[in-house]
Amino acid sequence: MSGSIDRNLAMELARTTEAAALSAARWMGRGDKIAADQAAVDGMRTMLASVQMDGVIVIGEGDKDEAPMLYIGEEVGTGDEPKVDIAVDPVEGTTLLANGMPNSIAVVAMSDRGSMFFAPGIVYMDKIAVGPEASHVIDLNESVAENLNRVAEAKRMPIHQLTVVVLQRPRHEKLIADIRATGARIKLIADGDVAGGLMTCTPGGGADVLMGVGGAPEAVITAAALKCIGGTIQCKLWPRDDNERRIAEEAGFEIDKVLTADDLVNSDNIFFSATGITDGEFLKGVRYTSQGATTQSLVMRSRSGTVRWIESIHELKKLAQYAAVPFD
Fold first, then answer.
1. Confidence class of residue 3 from pLDDT cuts 50, 70 and 90?
2. Confidence of residue 133 (pLDDT cuts 50, 70, 90)
3. Which of 102, 129, 135, 263 is most buried, judged by most C-beta within 10 A?
4. Pairing state of beta strands 292-301 and 287-288?
5. What Rg value do the Cα atoms of the chain yield, rounded?
6. Helix (H) or strand (E) holding 185
């Protein structure tokens, strides 16, 4: 990526997540997660088309036959250099948004072409993610207790003060019991493990560790974000059944191999942007006013280590350019 262009791309990505958030936020609490997701996709796709890049969606809304927009393999941008991989989640936490709950965000990550990991047919991964202070001590092959003791020592705090983020799922009953046995605190979340990963390494995020089985695409997006801010993630493929295991093995993937952040995003030049849709621990949601709306975004770049918190004011006439829902 050339120096003069890549510095601008971070801000262009912020505009794409802002567009998605502003479009989707109109559906907050209205119980229609499909409409909310489509609104975000429409807003994000419109803005991505204007970004000066030759982008390919590597992590998207699904295969072409399943997702009419922002599907895996779709080309986005103006077609000019640089050539990049794109990972998108126009609404992470569609159920959260539909029910008016916290921590729904719009997310985009970008890296050099060919650098993002993709395992066809694998929906889930087992994960552990931490912020910079403990990035050198975790090991997914070790026990829950060993990892939490290592994190506590690295962060110079007693284990009973650690907070572990876990998706609230039946599959995590043993994990939750193991965490509780150590004395650590638990923050159960209904959805959104990209947001959960970011909680471990952003000021006021309110968490120290993310553990458990979550989405495989979200693992790649989380890796991109954590590499920008100095944290890390380790994962293993988690096939749901024999068919998924067979697909992974036939594709040449080792089921028991621990994948690092560098395996998930093999680049040192990563851009990441997230904009809050509903209020959360580390990002404010969209706030509408009589004149327009306000947003808060987190924008990062790995090569420079730059982390920006952007508060933006949007006028009604600008919102109407990319939103399917009327703003007047």
1. very low
2. very high
3. 129
4. antiparallel
5. 19
6. strand 185-189
